[in-house]
């Protein structure tokens, strides 16, 4: 593992344990087993490091969404959306403490927004990816003509985000089986409506 990755991994552990406000670069360097100066060779500031860690938090969801377009017309629409829901639950659950801490730091939130705009990224892109997939399935005749793909995308991902928020807020541990059950359950009313 290269030093930048080692620092990012250590920063994630320290940030999750202490929160953004109480995390210092000295603690991160100690956890990474490097000098504080080495940290600044890879990141301009604690905020840059935090943003780097935050961007890496949604790997499972981004992976599931990047595969989703290629799945149009394959397997079942429900199975394809269950994979997205499971990945969303996993990543939203793990990243919730970091996501929420962004809102307590207006400067970091502004920089995050600016970075997203420069890279044409943002949380809305996940909903757009699910919507585009469902539009394709609609064209293929695998979901009804009256289906509103954006509404389904918003309901699916919004439900997963809310569930992850509640789970974190209540301090509950959630197993893979729990996430799988929720992913299936949240799709029941959507597919009942589609039928």
TrEMBL record:
Pfam families: TetR_N (PF00440)
Alphabetical keyword list: DNA-binding, Transcription, Transcription regulation
DNA-binding region residue numbers: 24-43
GO terms of molecular function: DNA-binding transcription factor activity; transcription cis-regulatory region binding
Superkingdom in the source lineage: Bacteria
Gene3D superfamilies assigned: Tetracycline Repressor, domain 2
Domain HTH tetR-type: from-to ranges: 1-61
PANTHER family attached to this UniProt entry: HTH-TYPE TRANSCRIPTIONAL REGULATOR RUTR, MYCOFACTOCIN BIOSYNTHESIS TRANSCRIPTIONAL REGULATOR MFTR-RELATED
Protein name: TetR/AcrR family transcriptional regulator
